[in-house]
Amino acid sequence: MLGTLLRFRLRRDRLRLGLWVAVLFLLSLLIVSEVRDTFGTLASRVATLRILLVTPAVLLFRGTPQGTSSGDFVAVLGLAFVALLVGLMSTFLVVRHTRAEEEDGQADAVAATAAGRRLPTLAVLLHVALADLLVTVAIAAGLLAGGLPVGGSVLLAAGCGMCGLVFAGVALLLAQVLPTARAANGASAAVVVAAYFVRGIGDAAGTPHPETFTLTPAWPSALSPIGWAQAIHPFADDDPAPLLLGLVASVVLAAAALALAERRDVGAGLVAARRAREHASAWLGGPFGLAVRLERLSLAGWIVGLVAFAALMGGLSVAVVHQLDQAGPGIATVINRLGGSNGTIQQAFANLGAQFGGVLAAAICVQAAQRLRQEEAAGRADAVLATATGRVRWLLSHLLLAALAAAVGLELAGLVAGWLSDGGEVDSGTWLLAFLWQLPAALVFLGIVALVFAVVPQATVPAGWLVFAAAVYLGIFGPLSGVPDWARHLAPFADVPAPALPTTSYTGGAVLALAAVVLVVAAVVLFGRRDTRPVG
Q1: I need a labelling partner for 370 at 20 to 30 A (CA). Which of 176, 212, 216, 297 fits?
Q2: Where do the H-state alpha helices sit in 234-286?
Q3: Residue 13: partners with Cβ closer than 8 Å, 6 or more residues away
Q4: Taking Cα atoms as reference points, which of 210, 476, 412, 427 lies closest to residue 318?
Protein backbone atom coordinates (compact mmCIF):
# COMPACT_ATOMS: atom_id res chain seq x y z
CA MET A 1 0.00 0.00 0.00
CA LEU A 2 2.86 2.33 0.82
CA GLY A 3 4.38 1.73 -2.61
CA THR A 4 1.05 2.45 -4.30
CA LEU A 5 0.69 5.77 -2.50
CA LEU A 6 4.27 6.70 -3.35
CA ARG A 7 3.78 5.90 -7.04
CA PHE A 8 0.56 7.92 -7.06
CA ARG A 9 2.31 11.01 -5.70
CA LEU A 10 5.24 10.63 -8.04
CA ARG A 11 2.85 10.41 -10.96
CA ARG A 12 1.03 13.57 -9.87
CA ASP A 13 4.30 15.47 -9.49
CA ARG A 14 6.22 14.12 -12.46
CA LEU A 15 6.01 17.43 -14.35
CA ARG A 16 6.82 19.59 -11.32
CA LEU A 17 9.73 17.40 -10.28
CA GLY A 18 11.03 17.31 -13.82
CA LEU A 19 11.04 21.09 -13.96
CA TRP A 20 12.76 21.41 -10.58
CA VAL A 21 15.44 18.91 -11.60
CA ALA A 22 16.05 20.64 -14.94
CA VAL A 23 16.14 24.15 -13.42
CA LEU A 24 18.52 23.21 -10.60
CA PHE A 25 20.84 21.36 -13.01
CA LEU A 26 20.96 24.35 -15.36
CA LEU A 27 21.35 26.82 -12.49
CA SER A 28 24.30 24.87 -11.08
CA LEU A 29 25.92 24.68 -14.48
CA LEU A 30 25.27 28.40 -15.06
CA ILE A 31 26.92 29.39 -11.77
CA VAL A 32 30.02 27.36 -12.62
CA SER A 33 30.11 28.85 -16.13
CA GLU A 34 29.80 32.37 -14.74
CA VAL A 35 32.69 31.78 -12.36
CA ARG A 36 34.83 30.29 -15.14
CA ASP A 37 34.09 33.13 -17.56
CA THR A 38 34.16 36.09 -15.19
CA PHE A 39 36.49 34.98 -12.38
CA GLY A 40 38.64 32.56 -14.31
CA THR A 41 41.94 33.92 -12.97
CA LEU A 42 43.26 33.78 -9.45
CA ALA A 43 43.84 37.55 -9.51
CA SER A 44 40.19 38.33 -10.27
CA ARG A 45 38.99 35.98 -7.53
CA VAL A 46 41.39 37.46 -5.00
CA ALA A 47 40.30 41.02 -5.86
CA THR A 48 36.65 40.08 -5.48
CA LEU A 49 37.18 38.23 -2.19
CA ARG A 50 38.90 41.29 -0.75
CA ILE A 51 35.67 43.20 -1.41
CA LEU A 52 33.42 40.47 -0.04
CA LEU A 53 35.34 40.12 3.21
CA VAL A 54 34.94 43.82 4.04
CA THR A 55 31.37 44.26 2.77
CA PRO A 56 28.87 42.71 5.22
CA ALA A 57 25.88 43.77 3.10
CA VAL A 58 27.12 41.60 0.21
CA LEU A 59 27.92 38.66 2.51
CA LEU A 60 24.31 38.80 3.71
CA PHE A 61 23.20 37.61 0.27
CA ARG A 62 26.18 35.45 -0.67
CA GLY A 63 27.99 32.93 1.50
CA THR A 64 31.03 32.07 3.59
CA PRO A 65 34.35 32.59 1.74
CA GLN A 66 36.69 29.64 2.30
CA GLY A 67 39.43 30.05 -0.26
CA THR A 68 40.36 31.24 -3.71
CA SER A 69 39.74 28.21 -5.93
CA SER A 70 36.96 28.12 -8.53
CA GLY A 71 35.07 25.61 -6.41
CA ASP A 72 35.31 27.83 -3.33
CA PHE A 73 33.99 30.70 -5.38
CA VAL A 74 31.05 28.64 -6.67
CA ALA A 75 30.15 27.75 -3.07
CA VAL A 76 30.23 31.42 -2.05
CA LEU A 77 28.08 32.56 -4.96
CA GLY A 78 25.60 29.72 -5.22
CA LEU A 79 25.31 27.35 -2.25
CA ALA A 80 22.99 29.44 -0.08
CA PHE A 81 20.68 30.40 -2.95
CA VAL A 82 20.43 26.86 -4.35
CA ALA A 83 19.74 25.52 -0.84
CA LEU A 84 16.99 28.12 -0.51
CA LEU A 85 15.34 26.86 -3.71
CA VAL A 86 15.56 23.22 -2.61
CA GLY A 87 14.03 24.15 0.74
CA LEU A 88 11.11 25.92 -0.91
CA MET A 89 10.54 22.95 -3.23
CA SER A 90 10.40 20.57 -0.28
CA THR A 91 7.96 22.66 1.75
CA PHE A 92 5.63 23.13 -1.23
CA LEU A 93 5.59 19.37 -1.87
CA VAL A 94 4.85 18.52 1.76
CA VAL A 95 1.94 20.92 2.17
CA ARG A 96 0.54 20.01 -1.25
CA HIS A 97 0.31 16.34 -0.31
CA THR A 98 -0.87 16.79 3.29
CA ARG A 99 -3.10 19.68 4.26
CA ALA A 100 -3.97 20.74 0.71
CA GLU A 101 -5.20 17.21 -0.08
CA GLU A 102 -7.21 17.22 3.15
CA GLU A 103 -8.93 20.47 2.17
CA ASP A 104 -9.67 19.14 -1.33
CA GLY A 105 -11.21 15.97 0.10
CA GLN A 106 -8.62 13.63 -1.44
CA ALA A 107 -7.19 12.63 1.94
CA ASP A 108 -10.57 11.35 3.12
CA ALA A 109 -10.81 9.02 0.15
CA VAL A 110 -7.32 7.63 0.82
CA ALA A 111 -7.89 7.32 4.58
CA ALA A 112 -11.07 5.29 3.93
CA THR A 113 -8.93 2.54 2.38
CA ALA A 114 -6.57 0.17 4.17
CA ALA A 115 -3.96 2.93 4.18
CA GLY A 116 -5.43 4.62 7.26
CA ARG A 117 -3.92 7.94 8.39
CA ARG A 118 -0.27 7.13 9.00
CA LEU A 119 0.73 5.48 5.72
CA PRO A 120 -0.18 8.52 3.55
CA THR A 121 2.07 10.71 5.71
CA LEU A 122 4.92 8.22 5.47
CA ALA A 123 4.41 8.15 1.70
CA VAL A 124 4.75 11.93 1.64
CA LEU A 125 8.01 11.72 3.58
CA LEU A 126 9.40 9.14 1.18
CA HIS A 127 8.18 11.18 -1.79
CA VAL A 128 9.95 14.33 -0.59
CA ALA A 129 13.10 12.38 0.32
CA LEU A 130 13.17 10.94 -3.20
CA ALA A 131 12.58 14.42 -4.68
CA ASP A 132 15.47 15.81 -2.64
CA LEU A 133 17.66 12.93 -3.81
CA LEU A 134 16.81 13.68 -7.44
CA VAL A 135 17.63 17.38 -7.16
CA THR A 136 20.81 16.53 -5.24
CA VAL A 137 21.93 14.38 -8.16
CA ALA A 138 20.93 17.16 -10.58
CA ILE A 139 22.95 19.79 -8.69
CA ALA A 140 25.99 17.53 -8.48
CA ALA A 141 25.67 16.72 -12.19
CA GLY A 142 25.57 20.43 -13.04
CA LEU A 143 28.69 21.14 -11.01
CA LEU A 144 30.54 18.16 -12.47
CA ALA A 145 29.49 19.16 -15.99
CA GLY A 146 31.13 22.51 -15.29
CA GLY A 147 34.41 20.77 -14.52
CA LEU A 148 34.54 21.03 -10.71
CA PRO A 149 36.11 18.29 -8.51
CA VAL A 150 33.93 15.30 -7.66
CA GLY A 151 34.27 15.43 -3.86
CA GLY A 152 33.33 19.07 -3.45
CA SER A 153 30.53 18.82 -6.01
CA VAL A 154 28.92 15.88 -4.25
CA LEU A 155 29.19 17.49 -0.82
CA LEU A 156 27.79 20.84 -1.98
CA ALA A 157 24.83 19.07 -3.59
CA ALA A 158 24.35 16.88 -0.51
CA GLY A 159 24.28 19.99 1.67
CA CYS A 160 21.47 21.42 -0.45
CA GLY A 161 19.59 18.11 -0.29
CA MET A 162 20.04 18.03 3.49
CA CYS A 163 18.43 21.47 3.70
CA GLY A 164 15.49 20.14 1.72
CA LEU A 165 14.97 17.30 4.20
CA VAL A 166 15.13 19.61 7.23
CA PHE A 167 12.68 22.11 5.76
CA ALA A 168 10.38 19.25 4.74
CA GLY A 169 10.26 18.26 8.41
CA VAL A 170 9.47 21.85 9.36
CA ALA A 171 6.65 21.99 6.80
CA LEU A 172 5.19 18.68 7.97
CA LEU A 173 5.22 19.90 11.56
CA LEU A 174 3.58 23.21 10.69
CA ALA A 175 0.98 21.36 8.61
CA GLN A 176 -0.18 19.63 11.81
CA VAL A 177 -0.33 22.84 13.82
CA LEU A 178 -1.73 25.59 11.59
CA PRO A 179 -5.42 25.83 10.67
CA THR A 180 -5.20 25.89 6.85
CA ALA A 181 -3.00 24.72 4.01
CA ARG A 182 -2.45 28.33 2.97
CA ALA A 183 -1.18 29.22 6.45
CA ALA A 184 1.08 26.16 6.52
CA ASN A 185 2.49 27.00 3.08
CA GLY A 186 3.13 30.62 3.99
CA ALA A 187 4.68 29.83 7.36
CA SER A 188 6.91 27.09 5.92
CA ALA A 189 8.17 29.35 3.13
CA ALA A 190 8.75 32.11 5.70
CA VAL A 191 10.90 29.72 7.78
CA VAL A 192 13.01 28.89 4.72
CA VAL A 193 13.52 32.55 3.84
CA ALA A 194 14.23 33.41 7.49
CA ALA A 195 16.84 30.64 7.61
CA TYR A 196 18.49 32.17 4.55
CA PHE A 197 18.73 35.57 6.21
CA VAL A 198 19.75 34.20 9.62
CA ARG A 199 22.62 32.51 7.81
CA GLY A 200 23.32 35.82 6.08
CA ILE A 201 23.42 37.69 9.38
CA GLY A 202 25.93 35.15 10.66
CA ASP A 203 28.13 35.71 7.61
CA ALA A 204 27.77 39.49 7.72
CA ALA A 205 28.76 39.54 11.41
CA GLY A 206 31.51 36.95 10.99
CA THR A 207 35.25 37.35 11.45
CA PRO A 208 37.18 37.75 8.19
CA HIS A 209 40.69 36.37 7.75
CA PRO A 210 42.16 38.41 4.86
CA GLU A 211 45.44 36.52 4.87
CA THR A 212 43.71 33.23 3.94
CA PHE A 213 40.64 34.74 2.23
CA THR A 214 38.33 32.89 4.60
CA LEU A 215 35.61 33.91 7.02
CA THR A 216 34.44 32.43 10.32
CA PRO A 217 30.68 33.05 10.57
CA ALA A 218 29.10 34.35 13.76
CA TRP A 219 26.82 32.18 15.93
CA PRO A 220 23.53 32.92 14.06
CA SER A 221 24.72 30.72 11.18
CA ALA A 222 24.58 27.71 13.51
CA LEU A 223 20.82 28.27 13.87
CA SER A 224 20.15 27.81 10.16
CA PRO A 225 20.16 24.58 8.12
CA ILE A 226 21.63 26.63 5.27
CA GLY A 227 24.41 27.64 7.64
CA TRP A 228 24.99 23.94 8.35
CA ALA A 229 25.32 23.29 4.62
CA GLN A 230 27.89 26.08 4.34
CA ALA A 231 29.79 24.58 7.29
CA ILE A 232 30.58 21.56 5.10
CA HIS A 233 33.06 23.86 3.30
CA PRO A 234 32.85 22.03 -0.03
CA PHE A 235 36.00 22.34 -2.16
CA ALA A 236 37.91 23.46 0.97
CA ASP A 237 37.74 21.30 4.14
CA ASP A 238 35.10 18.91 2.73
CA ASP A 239 33.67 18.17 6.20
CA PRO A 240 30.57 15.93 5.93
CA ALA A 241 29.72 16.13 9.67
CA PRO A 242 27.01 18.83 9.27
CA LEU A 243 25.11 16.42 7.01
CA LEU A 244 24.56 14.16 10.03
CA LEU A 245 23.22 17.11 12.04
CA GLY A 246 20.72 17.87 9.29
CA LEU A 247 19.67 14.23 9.02
CA VAL A 248 19.05 14.00 12.78
CA ALA A 249 17.07 17.26 12.77
CA SER A 250 14.88 16.07 9.88
CA VAL A 251 14.14 12.75 11.62
CA VAL A 252 13.24 14.50 14.88
CA LEU A 253 10.93 16.95 13.11
CA ALA A 254 9.25 14.19 11.11
CA ALA A 255 8.74 12.07 14.24
CA ALA A 256 7.20 15.02 16.08
CA ALA A 257 4.91 15.72 13.14
CA LEU A 258 3.75 12.08 12.99
CA ALA A 259 2.99 12.15 16.71
CA LEU A 260 0.94 15.33 16.38
CA ALA A 261 -0.90 14.00 13.33
CA GLU A 262 -2.63 11.44 15.56
CA ARG A 263 -4.05 14.21 17.77
CA ARG A 264 -5.89 16.34 15.23
CA ASP A 265 -8.90 16.00 12.97
CA VAL A 266 -8.51 15.64 9.22
CA GLY A 267 -8.73 19.07 7.61
CA ALA A 268 -7.98 20.96 10.81
CA GLY A 269 -4.84 22.03 12.63
CA LEU A 270 -4.04 21.88 16.32
CA VAL A 271 -4.48 25.65 16.33
CA ALA A 272 -8.13 26.38 15.63
CA ALA A 273 -9.05 28.72 12.82
CA ARG A 274 -10.11 32.20 13.85
CA ARG A 275 -13.88 32.56 14.09
CA ALA A 276 -15.32 34.49 11.18
CA ARG A 277 -17.44 37.59 11.57
CA GLU A 278 -21.17 37.09 11.61
CA HIS A 279 -21.60 39.45 8.67
CA ALA A 280 -19.11 40.02 5.88
CA SER A 281 -17.87 43.54 5.22
CA ALA A 282 -19.19 45.49 2.26
CA TRP A 283 -15.70 45.20 0.76
CA LEU A 284 -16.39 41.51 0.08
CA GLY A 285 -19.50 42.30 -1.95
CA GLY A 286 -17.57 42.15 -5.23
CA PRO A 287 -14.91 39.98 -6.89
CA PHE A 288 -12.15 42.58 -6.53
CA GLY A 289 -12.62 42.78 -2.77
CA LEU A 290 -12.63 39.00 -2.58
CA ALA A 291 -9.40 38.84 -4.59
CA VAL A 292 -7.79 41.36 -2.23
CA ARG A 293 -8.89 39.29 0.77
CA LEU A 294 -7.46 36.10 -0.71
CA GLU A 295 -4.16 37.58 -1.89
CA ARG A 296 -3.41 40.35 0.59
CA LEU A 297 -0.81 38.52 2.68
CA SER A 298 1.15 36.95 -0.17
CA LEU A 299 1.16 40.18 -2.19
CA ALA A 300 2.21 42.19 0.85
CA GLY A 301 5.10 39.77 1.36
CA TRP A 302 6.24 40.17 -2.26
CA ILE A 303 6.05 43.97 -2.02
CA VAL A 304 8.03 44.03 1.23
CA GLY A 305 10.67 41.80 -0.36
CA LEU A 306 10.87 44.04 -3.43
CA VAL A 307 11.27 47.18 -1.31
CA ALA A 308 13.89 45.49 0.89
CA PHE A 309 15.87 44.52 -2.20
CA ALA A 310 15.64 48.08 -3.54
CA ALA A 311 16.86 49.42 -0.19
CA LEU A 312 19.90 47.16 -0.43
CA MET A 313 20.67 48.24 -3.99
CA GLY A 314 20.21 51.92 -3.24
CA GLY A 315 22.28 51.76 -0.07
CA LEU A 316 25.11 49.92 -1.81
CA SER A 317 25.14 51.94 -5.00
CA VAL A 318 27.74 54.46 -3.87
CA ALA A 319 29.99 52.55 -1.45
CA VAL A 320 30.15 49.17 -3.14
CA VAL A 321 30.41 50.52 -6.66
CA HIS A 322 33.34 52.66 -5.55
CA GLN A 323 35.02 49.56 -4.09
CA LEU A 324 34.37 47.61 -7.27
CA ASP A 325 35.84 50.38 -9.35
CA GLN A 326 38.99 50.30 -7.25
CA ALA A 327 39.34 46.50 -7.15
CA GLY A 328 39.84 45.84 -10.81
CA PRO A 329 37.83 44.61 -13.77
CA GLY A 330 36.31 41.43 -12.24
CA ILE A 331 32.84 42.26 -10.91
CA ALA A 332 32.87 45.67 -12.59
CA THR A 333 32.94 43.96 -15.99
CA VAL A 334 30.02 41.73 -15.00
CA ILE A 335 27.93 44.71 -13.87
CA ASN A 336 28.62 46.57 -17.10
CA ARG A 337 27.73 43.52 -19.20
CA LEU A 338 24.50 42.92 -17.28
CA GLY A 339 23.47 46.47 -16.50
CA GLY A 340 24.56 48.31 -19.64
CA SER A 341 27.94 48.87 -21.22
CA ASN A 342 27.10 52.37 -22.49
CA GLY A 343 27.13 53.89 -18.99
CA THR A 344 29.42 54.21 -16.00
CA ILE A 345 29.61 51.38 -13.50
CA GLN A 346 27.29 53.22 -11.10
CA GLN A 347 24.72 53.82 -13.84
CA ALA A 348 24.96 50.17 -14.88
CA PHE A 349 24.59 49.13 -11.22
CA ALA A 350 21.40 51.20 -10.88
CA ASN A 351 19.99 49.76 -14.09
CA LEU A 352 20.86 46.23 -12.96
CA GLY A 353 19.11 46.84 -9.63
CA ALA A 354 16.00 48.02 -11.46
CA GLN A 355 16.12 44.95 -13.72
CA PHE A 356 16.12 42.61 -10.75
CA GLY A 357 13.30 44.66 -9.26
CA GLY A 358 11.43 43.99 -12.51
CA VAL A 359 12.07 40.27 -12.05
CA LEU A 360 10.42 40.40 -8.61
CA ALA A 361 7.50 42.42 -10.01
CA ALA A 362 7.07 39.81 -12.75
CA ALA A 363 7.03 37.09 -10.07
CA ILE A 364 4.23 39.01 -8.32
CA CYS A 365 2.21 38.94 -11.54
CA VAL A 366 2.91 35.26 -12.21
CA GLN A 367 1.88 34.09 -8.75
CA ALA A 368 -1.16 36.34 -8.49
CA ALA A 369 -2.44 35.30 -11.92
CA GLN A 370 -1.99 31.65 -11.00
CA ARG A 371 -4.52 32.21 -8.24
CA LEU A 372 -7.17 32.06 -10.97
CA ARG A 373 -6.40 28.39 -11.56
CA GLN A 374 -6.24 27.62 -7.85
CA GLU A 375 -9.71 29.10 -7.33
CA GLU A 376 -11.08 27.23 -10.33
CA ALA A 377 -9.48 23.91 -9.38
CA ALA A 378 -10.90 24.08 -5.86
CA GLY A 379 -14.39 24.82 -7.19
CA ARG A 380 -14.58 28.24 -5.56
CA ALA A 381 -14.69 30.01 -8.92
CA ASP A 382 -17.95 28.24 -9.76
CA ALA A 383 -19.47 29.50 -6.51
CA VAL A 384 -18.56 33.08 -7.43
CA LEU A 385 -19.66 32.75 -11.07
CA ALA A 386 -23.01 31.33 -9.94
CA THR A 387 -23.84 34.81 -8.59
CA ALA A 388 -24.39 37.95 -10.64
CA THR A 389 -20.62 38.23 -11.11
CA GLY A 390 -19.70 37.67 -14.74
CA ARG A 391 -16.66 35.83 -16.08
CA VAL A 392 -14.96 38.95 -17.39
CA ARG A 393 -15.38 40.81 -14.11
CA TRP A 394 -14.04 37.89 -12.07
CA LEU A 395 -11.02 37.38 -14.32
CA LEU A 396 -10.15 41.06 -14.56
CA SER A 397 -10.49 41.55 -10.79
CA HIS A 398 -7.62 39.14 -10.13
CA LEU A 399 -5.51 40.52 -12.99
CA LEU A 400 -6.09 44.13 -11.91
CA LEU A 401 -5.05 43.32 -8.37
CA ALA A 402 -1.83 41.71 -9.63
CA ALA A 403 -1.04 44.71 -11.83
CA LEU A 404 -1.70 47.16 -8.97
CA ALA A 405 0.50 45.15 -6.60
CA ALA A 406 3.37 45.13 -9.11
CA ALA A 407 2.97 48.87 -9.75
CA VAL A 408 2.87 49.76 -6.04
CA GLY A 409 5.88 47.54 -5.33
CA LEU A 410 7.95 49.10 -8.11
CA GLU A 411 7.00 52.65 -7.12
CA LEU A 412 7.89 52.11 -3.45
CA ALA A 413 11.09 50.33 -4.47
CA GLY A 414 12.13 53.21 -6.74
CA LEU A 415 11.43 55.78 -4.04
CA VAL A 416 13.38 53.88 -1.38
CA ALA A 417 16.34 53.14 -3.67
CA GLY A 418 16.53 56.79 -4.73
CA TRP A 419 16.33 58.03 -1.16
CA LEU A 420 19.08 55.70 0.10
CA SER A 421 21.39 56.45 -2.83
CA ASP A 422 21.41 60.18 -2.09
CA GLY A 423 24.67 61.73 -3.26
CA GLY A 424 25.33 59.15 -5.93
CA GLU A 425 25.75 59.64 -9.64
CA VAL A 426 22.16 58.47 -10.31
CA ASP A 427 19.59 60.84 -8.78
CA SER A 428 16.43 59.77 -6.96
CA GLY A 429 14.11 60.62 -9.85
CA THR A 430 16.08 58.41 -12.22
CA TRP A 431 15.98 55.53 -9.74
CA LEU A 432 12.19 55.86 -9.61
CA LEU A 433 11.83 55.91 -13.38
CA ALA A 434 14.19 52.94 -13.76
CA PHE A 435 11.97 50.84 -11.49
CA LEU A 436 8.66 52.05 -12.90
CA TRP A 437 9.66 51.24 -16.48
CA GLN A 438 9.93 47.59 -15.43
CA LEU A 439 6.12 47.45 -15.14
CA PRO A 440 5.35 46.79 -18.85
CA ALA A 441 7.57 43.68 -18.81
CA ALA A 442 5.92 42.44 -15.61
CA LEU A 443 2.48 42.93 -17.18
CA VAL A 444 3.50 40.80 -20.17
CA PHE A 445 3.95 37.88 -17.77
CA LEU A 446 0.54 38.64 -16.31
CA GLY A 447 -0.94 38.39 -19.79
CA ILE A 448 0.95 35.18 -20.62
CA VAL A 449 -0.24 33.38 -17.48
CA ALA A 450 -3.80 34.62 -18.02
CA LEU A 451 -3.74 33.34 -21.61
CA VAL A 452 -2.44 29.92 -20.54
CA PHE A 453 -5.19 29.80 -17.90
CA ALA A 454 -7.81 30.57 -20.53
CA VAL A 455 -6.55 27.95 -23.01
CA VAL A 456 -4.88 25.15 -21.01
CA PRO A 457 -5.87 25.73 -17.37
CA GLN A 458 -4.13 22.60 -16.07
CA ALA A 459 -0.77 23.99 -17.25
CA THR A 460 -1.19 27.41 -15.63
CA VAL A 461 1.19 26.91 -12.69
CA PRO A 462 4.05 24.94 -14.32
CA ALA A 463 3.91 26.92 -17.59
CA GLY A 464 3.91 30.24 -15.73
CA TRP A 465 7.05 29.50 -13.76
CA LEU A 466 8.77 27.82 -16.71
CA VAL A 467 8.24 30.89 -18.92
CA PHE A 468 9.37 33.11 -16.06
CA ALA A 469 12.57 31.11 -15.46
CA ALA A 470 13.41 31.01 -19.17
CA ALA A 471 12.86 34.76 -19.50
CA VAL A 472 15.11 35.52 -16.51
CA TYR A 473 17.86 33.34 -17.95
CA LEU A 474 17.63 34.79 -21.47
CA GLY A 475 16.89 38.41 -20.66
CA ILE A 476 18.98 38.99 -17.53
CA PHE A 477 21.84 36.50 -17.65
CA GLY A 478 22.00 36.15 -21.42
CA PRO A 479 24.95 38.55 -21.80
CA LEU A 480 27.07 36.39 -19.50
CA SER A 481 26.13 33.13 -21.17
CA GLY A 482 26.77 34.06 -24.78
CA VAL A 483 23.07 33.92 -25.70
CA PRO A 484 22.46 35.35 -29.21
CA ASP A 485 20.70 38.71 -29.38
CA TRP A 486 17.64 37.26 -31.11
CA ALA A 487 17.21 34.76 -28.25
CA ARG A 488 17.67 37.46 -25.60
CA HIS A 489 14.91 39.54 -27.13
CA LEU A 490 12.46 36.68 -26.73
CA ALA A 491 12.40 37.73 -23.06
CA PRO A 492 10.52 40.91 -22.08
CA PHE A 493 13.36 41.96 -19.74
CA ALA A 494 15.71 42.52 -22.70
CA ASP A 495 13.65 45.39 -24.12
CA VAL A 496 12.80 47.36 -20.98
CA PRO A 497 13.81 51.07 -21.16
CA ALA A 498 16.83 51.99 -19.02
CA PRO A 499 16.52 55.60 -17.76
CA ALA A 500 19.60 55.15 -15.58
CA LEU A 501 21.84 54.89 -18.66
CA PRO A 502 22.97 57.93 -20.70
CA THR A 503 21.08 56.80 -23.80
CA THR A 504 18.03 54.56 -23.96
CA SER A 505 15.00 53.87 -26.12
CA TYR A 506 11.45 53.88 -24.79
CA THR A 507 10.00 52.08 -27.80
CA GLY A 508 10.45 48.70 -26.17
CA GLY A 509 8.40 49.78 -23.16
CA ALA A 510 5.51 50.90 -25.35
CA VAL A 511 5.60 47.64 -27.33
CA LEU A 512 5.62 45.59 -24.13
CA ALA A 513 2.64 47.53 -22.74
CA LEU A 514 0.71 46.94 -25.97
CA ALA A 515 1.61 43.24 -25.90
CA ALA A 516 0.34 42.94 -22.32
CA VAL A 517 -3.00 44.49 -23.31
CA VAL A 518 -3.36 42.16 -26.29
CA LEU A 519 -2.59 39.10 -24.18
CA VAL A 520 -5.11 40.05 -21.50
CA VAL A 521 -7.83 40.76 -24.08
CA ALA A 522 -7.18 37.40 -25.73
CA ALA A 523 -7.36 35.69 -22.33
CA VAL A 524 -10.69 37.36 -21.53
CA VAL A 525 -12.20 36.33 -24.89
CA LEU A 526 -10.97 32.74 -24.73
CA PHE A 527 -11.94 32.24 -21.09
CA GLY A 528 -15.48 33.25 -21.99
CA ARG A 529 -15.63 30.39 -24.50
CA ARG A 530 -14.72 27.45 -22.24
CA ASP A 531 -16.25 25.69 -19.27
CA THR A 532 -14.71 25.95 -15.84
CA ARG A 533 -12.71 22.84 -14.92
CA PRO A 534 -12.50 22.10 -11.20
CA VAL A 535 -10.36 19.20 -10.01
CA GLY A 536 -11.96 16.21 -8.34
Answers
A1: 176
A2: 241-261
A3: 93, 127, 131
A4: 427
> What's the whole-model pTM score?
0.71
CA distance 261 to 175: 9
Beta-carbon neighbour count of residue 219 at 10 Å?
11
- What end-to-end distance do the CA atoms of the chain give, in Å? 22
DSSP code per residue over 448-485: HHHHHHHH-GGGHHHHHHHHHHHHHHHHTSHHHHT--H
Q: Which amino acid is at 533?
A: R
Rounded mean pLDDT of the chain? 81
| Number of domain units in the chain | 2
- 91 alpha carbon, distance to own chain's centre: 13
CA angle, residues 324, 327, 332, in degrees to nearest 5: 45
Q: By the 8 A CB rule, do 476 and 465 touch? A: no
Residue 136, in any domain of the structure: yes
Residue 280 within any structural domain of the chain: no
User: What are the tens digits of pLDDT across the range 197-216?
Assistant: 888 888 878 888 888 888 88
Q: Is the dihedral of CA 347, 352, 357, 358 positive or negative?
A: positive
Q: Do both 212 and 322 map to the same domain?
A: no
| Domain match, 88 and 215 both | yes
Same domain, 235 and 298: no
Residue 462: CA count within 13 A, CB half-sphere: 14
Q: Which domain range does residue 438 map to?
A: 286-536
